[in-house]
Each structure stands twice: as structure tokens, then as C-alpha cells.
Amino acid sequence: MTHARNTKVMNRFDLTQRLVAKLKDEAVVGGIGNTNFDLWAAGHRPQNFYMLGSMGLAFPIALGVALAQPNRRVFALEGDGSLLMQLGCLSTIATLAPKNLTMVVMDNGIYQITGAQPTPAAGHTDIVAIAVASGLANSSWAADEDDFERLIEQSLSASGPSLIGVRIDDKPGTGATRRDPVQIRERFMAGLGVRELL
After folding, report:
1. What is the pLDDT of residues 28-56, one digit of tens each?
2. Contacts of 183-189 spanning 24+ positions with Cβ under 8 A
3. Rounded to whole angstroms, how far apart are CA atoms 95 and 83?
4. Which of 112, 168, 179, 192 has a CA between 20 and 30 Å from the CA of residue 2?
5. Of 144, 125, 45, the residue nearest 83 (C-alpha)
6. Distance, CA of 28 to CA of 185 (rounded, Å)
7. 130-135: which pairs have CB atoms within 8 A and are 24 or more residues apart?
8. Cα 16 to Cα 104: distance, rounded to the nearest angstrom
9. Does domain 4-191 match CATH 3.40.50.970?
10. 95: buried, middle or exposed (CB in 10 Å: 19+, 13-18, 0-12)?
């Protein structure tokens, strides 16, 4: 297994664009802050859910979507600081083992939105190793951009949940999400075919 220290430091917006370019009707849950802003800027889609203020819940929300729509591939984009608030969700996801869930952890070792304070895990904790130890065997660090794209493609046909760790730089998010929770919810539900757009 590749260790985080052996991976290239990449750019979150570039990686998000690479992911979005591969999507058709897959759902994507964007964690709070810059992960979310880059998802919006990479190409707004009705199948995107932009989280507002619910730090640490991208993976749990995506788990719910994946269980509710087992025939739709679901991606979740989360920052390392947010994941640290909900590490227990990795064990829950491993236990429920949805075959259609791919989790991407954007790891820059800081709480970027609040002032770039180092996370408690910065430089000491291997998030992918935690995922593997939690029972998510299909977890890997992306070595570089090409490897990230390969892991995304591989996850599209995986028979269980996948987690991809990427080391990213500290560049700010691109753009900003329109902060209208009702509109975000309604558009996402319409995009998943469970409600007509009002």
C-alpha cells in the first residue's frame, strides 16, 4: 500500500474537474468549504449535493444516498479535517458495505477554511491506513493525477465501497456555492429522480 508521504501533492480543483469529467448520472456529495466550492465550480449538476455547515457528514450523507439508491454510483468528497470529526463512519460504511459508494479524502493537513491550523493528524496519521483497519479493504492513496483517474475508474465497477486518499495543496477553493439549502435539496432530489423540481 502506498503511504501518503510517497504521493504527489496535487490540486483539489484539478482533481475535482477530472472526477466530474467522468460522470454521467452519478450522485456527488461535496463536503463543506473548499471541497464544496470546487465541486460547484467544476461543473454544476443536479446530481450534486452541496453541504452547508455540516462538518464531517459528507461520508454519512453519501452512505444514506448509496443505500437508498443502490443502482446509482455515489461519490463523496471530504476534507481530512472534516473526516477526523466522524472517523467512526468508516466502520459503519465497512459494515454496511454498499457496493456503489466511492469516498475521496482531500488531505492537506490543515483546517483551511478557519485559518489553516494544522489538524491533529497532520504528519502523524495515515487516513488510508485507518480506513483499511476499519474494514474498508479497497482503500488507496492516489500516487498522482493519472493514478487518481485510474482509481476513480476502478471504483466505478467495484463490488464494495472504495476510499481514495489524495494529498492536496493549500490553494483556496474555486468559486463559491450558492447558499440556499432549500434549492440545493430540491435540485438534488430532482436530479436523483425522487421529486419533481418545484
Report:
1. 999 988 899 999 999 889 999 999 888 88
2. 184/49, 184/50, 184/52, 187/46, 188/27, 188/46, 188/47, 188/48, 188/49
3. 18
4. 112
5. 125
6. 13
7. 130/87, 130/90, 131/90, 131/163, 131/165, 132/1, 134/87, 134/90, 134/91, 134/93, 134/94, 135/90, 135/91, 135/94, 135/95
8. 10
9. yes
10. exposed
pTM exceeds 0.90, yes or no:
yes
pLDDT under 50: residue ranges of the chain: 1
Answer yes or no: are the C-beta atoms of 155 and 164 closer than 8 Å. Answer: yes
C-alpha cell, 4: 501518503
| Cell 456503489 belongs to residue | 100
Task: Delimit the domains of the chain by residue range.
Answer: 4-191
Question: What is the β-pairing status of strands 48-50 and 162-167?
Answer: unpaired
